[in-house]
Amino acid sequence: MTAIKLIASDLDHTLLTDAGELPPDFYRLIRRVHAAGIHFVAASGRALYTLQPMFAPVQDCVSLIAENGAFVVRDGQEVAAQYLDAADVTALLHYTKAQGLGYPILCAKERAYIDASAKAMAPFLGQFFRQYEFVDDLMALDVPVAKYTVFFANKETAAAFSDYHTPLGDRFHVTIGGDYFLDIMHQGVNKGTAITTLGDTLGVTPAEMVTFGDNLNDTEMLQVAGYSYIVAAATPKLDPYATARIGSNGDFAVAKKITQILENGGTLA
To answer: What is the DSSP string of 70-92?
Structure first.
C-alpha cells in the first residue's frame, strides 16, 4: 500500500455541488487531512481571487492551483506564475474575432477583463469572475494575462474545441473548462505540471498523490497522480486516465473518498 501525501481536487462539478457549495463540514475534513500529514490542494480553472476567500478558513493548510495551473500558491505564498506573451494575447483576440463566435475574456491575477459585448450575461459570469470589468477594446489593455478564455453563452464549447485546438494546439495549451468556457494558456501550463511543481516543493512524488476531476482541463492532473478518480458525470474522455469513476458531486463523492483514505490510515490499497 502507498502512503498518500497529497490530495488534489478540481472544484466545479467535482468537489463543489452544482450550486457551487463545498461539502458539509469540509473545512473540518481538511483539518483532518492536514493532521494526517497529507497536503490538500484545490486545483481549479477559476481565478486565484475566487479561491482565496473560499478556502480562507483553512488557508494555513491548503495549496491553491488557479487558472488551470498558471498560479500555484502554497500556504499563502506564490510558488509559480506563468503568463501569456502580450503578442500572443493580441493574436488570440484576432483569432476569436475572426471565428465570430464566443466572447473573449482576459484573466489577469487581480481581475478578469471581459469583452463589453457580453454585458447582458453579467449575472451569470459573476458566479465565476468575482472581480471583473467589461472593456470595450481588450486589445488596448496593458496587463499581464495568465489565461485567455472564450465564453460560449449557448454551450458551444465542445463543438468549438477542435477549431481552436487544431490551429493553436502547438503554440498553446487549449482545454475545455466547462460547458461554457474554453481556456487557453501558455503551452506548459496545466494542472499536472502545477501539482508536480508543488510536489517537488513538498517532497511528494506522483505515486503518493491522489487527484479528482471531471473535465478535460483535469487530464494532466489525473495522468500525473498515482491514483486518480473522476466523478459520475465526468466526460467519458477521462476514463483512460482514471483509476476509477466514483459517485456524484451532489452526493459529496470526493469528500467521501477522502474520508475513506483517512479511515484507511492515509493509504489506498
So the answer is: TEEEETTEEEEE--B-HHHHHHH
